[in-house]
Design goal:
The protein is built from 18 helices and 41 strands. The chain has about 650 residues and is α+β, with helices and mostly antiparallel strands. It is elongated, with a radius of gyration of 31 Å. The model is unreliable at about 475-485 and about 565-570 (pLDDT under 50). The site of adenosine-5'-diphosphate has 21 residues, from strand 7, strand 9, strand 10, strand 13 and strand 14. Adenosine-5'-diphosphate binds near residues 163 and 440.
Length: about 650
């Protein structure tokens, strides 16, 4: 075993590798960019070396600097994690030329799987089923179109150098082929510098099932399958192991095919053989085809660890240091079921836009494994992938594991940035997914329902109100009572585009009524803390003027500076209304006065602030119904304008 290794990565995977180093007594060297100088993986490592810069090109992709760091710190081997340099055969060559060990497959194995056409040809030769198609070198449009006809529509055009869905086009019928080919080729040329494509049969409603393999350069074993069919735009969202509906016969056939694939290239280390599966008619041993091999540890490896009890990183270190495979195929078995959900900082309603922000609060439930590279206070920056964590659960059966996933997601707390947590929760409750009825089109078909955000309830708003005025933390309810000598208080909140006028009435010790836009929520303090209309309160995190009420979904409510409250909001055409309860300070007009839109008509004092009430249109004052010094309710009409001549 190595004495010291360097981890050429960041984030959760760097932390994950360091965890195993700790357990094995291996010294861990981290590398980091300037923006990651205080990152969790740096804190966890025994030694850290700065690579400088912020972008991957300035930092984690600098192979030379990483090799120099390994040599300077006495590391004998480099773990690449996933992404960055993990599948770069030139880096592997450079690592070995420097006398170091690359913890992963050989450069030649990576090259063999690097191009989709060559990999498919190699796999077909090794007796692994591949998707029917054309992966020849003749790239003339006529030949490709003829091949597409022979395969039968619909067909998929794929860039041979592709990845991340780039250079991929679905073609439904012959007339669309020429255009789709031209655009796939030009996209592939731009993205990969290689315009070559292959054509294959498009499998309708396919499942993505992949097999974890592990080799020691000679022999290989498989650690069963993972189902990664829950994808959005070819990106995995929730993964599970084993695959729902898998039969022993098909598992055997897939496992053996994957082992053949690994052994055909003398595979060393952890790898994943991805198959596309036709699930339209149940899982059949003749209904799966090789898609590609990922020559590294996958993001979703923890679900395999959960059901097999194997620490895949430990296996990586042992095999890379020269040990044979830790066990044989017969020693491996499946226990229970596991799910992994990828938690991202992203704005789901805005179309899953990557988000940034400082994680002012971050907490995971104890029952789940959370693989994360960030802590409370860390920043999700625009420089890297916006992943916050992977939430992993394990249960004795799929049903148990799924219930645990739902609970774990609703107990995960993130404040300071928007996340996809509600989307993950909705997916975990999706009827088809719950029944194990998955395919890669599931998310796309049900996207509207999966991203629908339920309305904010008055109970949630009331919890935010109590937290914002500090009453939820009052040690005894009596203190809360005593805090507020005026027994009424008003608060304006914003939740997204919604504005809420809240009125707090202290009725007695531990008894507060919160009116939210007129709807009253009874907050009562008992032995177990506050209850809201009889329901227990959720966890709430307050920072500055924002309250994050955690739950399914989590809502963020911001306390509005009363001056920001658009007084005009309560002004509806003819009527000038009080936008909130308050004291009329001054009235500037009397009946018969001509006013112009935007003129200040009165001043209302509420929440210790003055609010100008403005005319919503040009007109003549018909009536003034309030006088200076009078107390008015929210919505009270103060001034009426004469009806407009139409
Ligand atoms: P990339 O390397 O660009 O990610 P892959 O070959 O891994 O491309 O395919 C990505 C995804 O596209 C798969 O997970 C699957 O959902 C879909 N896909 C790939 N090949 C086919 C096919 N022949 N028929 C239907 N869907 C496919």
């Amino acid at each position: 075993m190595f004495d010291t290794i360097l981890i050429a990565n960041r984030g959760e995977i760097a932390c994950r590798v360091i965890d195993t180093c700790r357990r094995l007594g291996v010294r861990a060297v981290a590398v980091h960019s300037d923006v990651d100088a205080q990152a969790r993986h740096v804190e966890m490592a025994d030694v850290a070396v700065s690579l400088g810069g912020a972008t991957p090109a300035e930092s984690y992709l600098r192979g030379d600097a990483i090799i120099a760091a390994a040599q300077a710190t006495g590391a004998q081997a480099i773990h690449p994690g996933y992404g960055f340099l993990s599948e770069n055969p030139d880096f592997v060559d450079a690592v070995e030329a420097a006398g170091l060990v690359f913890i992963g497959p050989s450069a030649s194995a990576i090259r063999a799987m690097g191009l989709k056409d060559a990999a498919k040809a190699l796999m077909a030769e090794a007796g692994v089923p591949v998707v029917p198609g054309y992966q020849g070198s003749d790239q003339s449009p006529d030949v490709l179109a003829k091949e597409a006809d022979a395969i039968g529509y619909p067909v998929l055009i794929k860039a041979v150098a592709g990845g991340g869905g780039k250079g991929m086009r679905l073609v439904e019928a012959p007339k669309g082929f020429a255009d789709a080919l031209a655009s796939a080729q030009s996209e592939a040329k731009t993205a990969f510098g290689n315009p070559h494509v292959l054509i294959e049969k498009y499998i309708t409603s396919p499942r993505h099932i992949e097999v974890q393999v592990f080799g020691d350069g000679g022999r290989a074993v498989h650690l069963f399958e993972r189902d990664c069919s829950l994808q959005r735009r070819h990106q995995k969202v929730i993964e599970e192991a084993p695959a729902p509906g898998m039969t022993p016969k098909m598992r055997d056939a897939m496992g053996q095919a994957a082992v053949r694939a690994a052994e055909a290239i003398g595979y060393k280390g952890a790898g994943t053989v991805e198959f596309i599966v036709d699930g339209s008619d149940g899982l059949r041993p003749d209904g799966f085809w090789f898609m590609e091999m990922n020559t590294r540890l996958q993001v979703e490896h923890p679900v395999t660890e959960a059901i097999t009890g194997v620490d895949l990183v430990e296996w990586q270190l042992r095999v890379a240091s020269g040990e044979p495979l830790p066990c044989s195929q017969e020693d491996l078995s499946i226990a229970g079921h596991s799910f992994e959900a990828r938690l991202y900082a992203e704005d789901v309603p805005a179309g899953f836009l990557p988000a940034t922000g400082r994680l002012s609060h971050l907490a995971f439930p104890e029952e789940a494994r959370a693989d994360t590279g960030v802590r409370t206070g860390d920043v999700i920056s625009p420089h890297y992938d916006p992943m916050i964590a992977k939430v992993i659960v394990h249960g004795s059966s799929r049903a148990v594991a799924l219930r645990k996933l739902r609970r774990a997601l609703s107990a995960t707390q993130v404040a300071g940035t928007v996340t996809n947590l509600a989307f993950l929760g909705a997916l975990a409750r999706h009827a088809g997914f719950s029944a194990g009825d998955v395919d890669t089109g599931l998310i796309g078909r049900d996207l509207a329902a999966l991203t629908d955000v339920p309305d904010l309830t008055p109970v949630v708003a009331a919890q935010a109100v109590l937290a914002l005025i500090g009453l939820d933390r009052a040690p005894r309810p009596l203190d809360g009572f005593a805090l507020w000598s005026p027994v009424m208080q008003d608060l304006a909140l914003a939740c997204g585009d919604d504005m809420l006028c809240c009125q707090i009435t202290t009725c007695g010790p531990g008894e507060i009524d919160v009116a939210v836009n007129g709807q009253i929520v009874a907050a009562r303090h008992g032995a177990n803390g506050w209850r809201f209309d009889g329901q227990p309160g959720a966890a709430v995190f307050v920072e500055d003027e924002s309250a994050t009420v955690f739950g399914d979904p989590t809502f963020v409510l911001r306390r509005l500076d009363p001056l920001d409250v658009d007084a005009g909001a309560g002004t509806s055409g003819d009527l000038v209304e009080a936008p909130m309860p308050g004291l009329v300070r001054q009235v500037f007009v009397s009946a018969g006065a001509e006013v112009a839109k935007g003129d200040r008509l009165a001043i209302l004092e509420a929440m210790k602030m003055e609010h100008s009430l403005l005319a919503a249109r040009d007109g003549v004052v018909a009536e003034v119904m309030a006088e200076a010094g009078s107390q008015v309710e929210a919505g009270a009409v103060l001034i009426r304008l004469e009806e407009e001549d139409i």
